[in-house]
Design a protein that fits this description.
The protein is mostly helical and about 60 residues long. About 60% of the residues lie in helices and about 0% in strands. It has a domain at about 25-60. The radius of gyration is 16 Å and the shape is rod-shaped. The chain starts with 7 loop residues before the first helix and ends in a 5-residue tail after the last helix.
């Protein structure tokens, strides 16, 4: 099989591994906003890491 996965993705998976063992997660508006903010920050970090990896590999976007 051909692996078309971005080479930075496995690195991001190692860095951004989150463990969750909660049986009940509160679904309040504040929790929802915090969750959105964390996802947004994580997406920014992933983009920065991917750009750094691309620059390292000589592919500047």
């Amino acid at each position: 099989t051909v692996n078309n996965e971005n080479p930075a993705v496995p690195m991001m998976r190692e860095i951004l591994t989150l463990n969750h063992h909660y049986s009940c997660i509160p679904q309040t508006p504040l929790f929802y906003l915090c969750r959105q903010h964390i996802r947004s920050l994580a997406d920014e970090i992933k983009l920065k890491l991917a750009n750094q990896q691309n620059q390292f590999n000589g592919l500047i976007f």
